[in-house]
Design goal:
Blueprint lengths: L3 E6 L5 H13 L3 E6 L1 H11 L19 E3 L18 E7 L1 H9 L5 H11 L4 E5 L6 H12 L3 E2 L13 H15 L17
Parallel strand pairs: 1-2, 1-4, 2-3, 4-5, 5-6
Helix pairs in contact: 1-6, 3-4, 3-5
């Protein structure tokens, strides 16, 4: 069954997590409504050498972007800004701790935060993927508030027990965790940890 996903990228480092999550979802036939914060565009240029125009040429990042619709972060009338439009999940990857703080306090001023607030108020699946270190007490308190409100806090913390050979395998480990929470069994990257018999 086709899944409908609302996905946002913010200006946290590790934008490749968002790019590869979108690619993995498209490969599984998902429909994605996407927004990028202005800072996310800056990080895309810095970390991946991709400068998106306005409107962005999505094929610069995803060769076959059918099923993918982009909305500017200022477009508060976008479908994901309303609880009347149902999505199977809402994902912010990567999620800056600033965005997380605004979501936790209900003071978002763009489409990124608004879609997350919609997910929380409608009790729908919300996955936030922070990539920051270390975490301050305030950041941890915001994560706790969001977790209590129903969000899944899924830090971009790749595993190493599968002996990764390159960065892509580390990234796909985290992407695989995201997809597992969406109910996909054919996740990218390595399988989960397998305990050994005594």
């Amino acid at each position: 069954m086709e899944k409908k996903i609302a996905l946002a990228m913010t200006g946290a480092s590790g934008v490749i997590y968002g790019v590869r999550t979108v690619a993995a979802l498209l490969a599984r036939g998902c429909r994605i409504d996407l927004t990028l914060s202005p800072a996310a565009r800056e990080v895309l240029a810095e970390e991946m050498g991709v400068t998106l125009g306005s409107p962005p040429a999505l094929a610069d990042l995803w060769p076959h972007p059918s099923g993918l619709t982009y909305y500017p972060p200022t477009q508060v009338a976008a479908p994901m800004a309303s609880g009347s439009n149902r999505y199977d999940a809402y994902i912010v990857v990567p999620c800056s701790t600033g965005s997380m703080g605004r979501i936790a306090s209900g003071t978002s001023d763009n489409l990124v935060g608004r879609m997350a607030e919609v997910a929380l108020k409608e009790r729908r699946p919300l996955i936030l993927v922070p990539r920051e270190s270390p975490y301050s007490t305030i950041m941890l308190e915001n994560m706790t508030r969001l977790s209590r409100a129903g969000a899944i806090i899924l830090p971009a913390s790749p595993g190493f027990y599968h002996h990764p050979s390159d960065i892509n395998e580390l990234v796909d480990f985290v992407v695989g965790r995201i997809l597992s929470h969406l109910g996909f069994s054919d996740r990218p990257g390595p399988a989960g940890w397998t305990p050994k018999a005594p």
